[in-house]
Amino acid sequence: MVKNLFISVSSQEEKEENKGSVEFQVFSFTNKIRRLTSHLELHRKDYLSQRGLRKILGKRQRLLAYLSKKNRVRYKELISQLDIREPKTR
C-alpha cells in the first residue's frame, strides 16, 4: 500500500479541535477512500469493502454538496487542496 497518497491534515492539536468541521470530515473520508481503493486494487472480489467504499463516497458527496451551498469559497479551496474534482470548462 502506498502511504504517500494519504493526506496529512494538520497538527494533532488542530485535529482535536476541528473533528466536527466539514473540511475535516471530507479529509478523513478522502483518506479512507484512497486507502480502500488501494486495497481493492489487490483484492478485487472483496465485496464488503466495495460496499463500504460506496457508502463513504456517498457521505463525502453529501458533505461536499452541503459545503458548496453554504460557503462556495471554502468548497473551492477544499476541492483544489484535495484535488478531488476537475474544474468544469465551458
From TrEMBL:
- Known InterPro entries for this protein? Ribosomal_uS15 (IPR000589), Ribosomal_uS15_bac-type (IPR005290), uS15_NS1_RNA-bd_sf (IPR009068)
Q: GO biological process annotations for this chain's record? A: translation
Q: Looking at the keywords, is Ribosomal protein present?
A: yes
* Major site of localization recorded for this protein: plastid
Gene3D superfamilies given in the database record: S15/NS1, RNA-binding
UniProt-listed Pfam families: Ribosomal_S15 (PF00312)
Provide any one GO MF term from the record: structural constituent of ribosome
| UniProt-listed SUPFAM superfamilies | S15/NS1 RNA-binding domain
Give compartment(s): Plastid, Chloroplast
- GO CC field: chloroplast; ribonucleoprotein complex; ribosome
Q: List keywords of the entry alphabetically.
A: Chloroplast, Plastid, Ribonucleoprotein, Ribosomal protein
Q: Please tell me whether the keyword Plastid is annotated for this protein.
A: yes
Q: How does it assemble?
A: Part of the 30S ribosomal subunit.
What's this protein's family per the entry?
Belongs to the universal ribosomal protein uS15 family.
The record, for HAMAP family, names: Ribosomal_uS15_B
Concerning NCBIfam families, the annotation shows:
S15_bact
| Protein name, entry field | Small ribosomal subunit protein uS15c
